[in-house]
Amino acid sequence: MPTCIAPTCIALIVAGGSGQRFGAERPKQYLELAGKPVLRRTVEAFLSHPQVTGVRVVIDPTWREAYDAAVAGLGLPDPVAGGASRQDSVRNGLEALAAADGAPDLVLIHDAARPLIDAATIGAVIDALETTPGAIAAVPVADTLKRGSGNGGAGAIAGTVDREGLWRAQTPQGFRFPAIVEAHRAAAGLSLTDDAAVAERAGLAVALVPSKEDNFKVTTPDDLTRATRAIMSSLWDVRTGSGFDVHRFTDGDFVTLCGLRVPHDHGLEGHSDADVGLHALTDAILGALAAGDIGSHFPPTDPRWRGADSAKFLRHAADLVAERGGVIAHADVTIICERPKVGPHRAAMAERIAQILGIEVGRVSVKATTTEQLGFTGRREGIAAQAVATIRLPG
User: Fold this and answer.
1) In degrees, to the nearest 5, what angle opens at C-alpha 216 toward C-alphas 94 and 171?
2) Where does the record place the site Positions MEP for the nucleophilic attack (predicted)?
3) Which of 86, 116, 140, 156 could form a disulfide with 214 if both were Cys (CB 3.0 to 4.6 A apart)?
């Protein structure tokens, strides 16, 4: 029997908008959503889909640095510069795909600000393209529609609109690639509402694929809150892990605590930078994952970790949580020592931990205590730390 070769399919993510309606300092696609930038969540949804061959993003070059940070480590090709309008940006993206070696058979055009797109809808849009040149995700209109008589449509009711057969268009909007490229070229200079309208103008049939209400576009701060709630409600496997670490004093003039260099009349002895705070927190996160301990991931016998920045260890633990589709909900570190005084550095330590973990600083607590001059810490022979971490994983 002949072998059936699956069509190549590229997801073109449109992320060139300025997000003026959102009112933030940066475009909404670069804002944090449950521990990840909105854009990254959108891109990962398509990268993880078995029917999607690759992802290309269209951006405003002004925000290239924010883009690079948002998609770091995903191995994406260089982004495409957007245009003056969304339609121009999509056309630029399509032209970039056409100019690349091996243009795709299919293309999915998706808004970066729709991060909750699900795998089933993506697959349904792709499958529909077997029998039609275009297909879009859409939701049937459920509410009664009224037409207003006032300026801008407000004011008194002028009539009721029959909702029979009406759908709310979403993305992804999928097309056979050669047809949509030509349709966009022919529509250059026009102002059409979406890519389906571009296809309709060219005479292409476009199918409606039922989607989900969660596939909404993040446009306002309330939308971001709604998206956060949707994500967190799916992460119902709540886990807590604890960690403990000790390092003895040695010669030196500073100690490293929670990612900061703190002046002191001694240093701390250890294979890495001997950061007891980060070591304890790393173990706490690994414990919540049931993923061993810091020594199993970074053996003290391995010369690669001699003098290493412990932020690498903590970032590794956070990455393991992200790989499981989870988030770090809270981190609590307690430093146990007589000296140096931790109080003046607590806020900076919390900020540094939050930066390493990629979470809000309000989810990090750093405390300090003494042992009332009892034990090895009371005798000022070293420093200890204990930590607790709470994570949420998909059920």
Assistant:
1) 25
2) 163, 217
3) 116
